[in-house]
Give the backbone structure.
Amino acid sequence: MNGKEAGSLDRALAKVCELCPVCLHARHHQAGVIYNFVMNVEQEICPFCKAYERVHGKKAHEKRGN
């Protein structure tokens, strides 16, 4: 997180990723074409996935919870 708190814009962008059906599928199933797609897209292209990582400290494809 580069030592900074996530701002309101980051939280709003991360919320889109939290609700994104593609990212939700990747987080839940942890395998397959969609999972690989999210893994490859999240860092290079998607601003929502980048914000998700800044806010939650996890990649968009990583399982949430415990």
Observations:
- The longest helix spans residues 8-19.
- The mean pLDDT is 88.
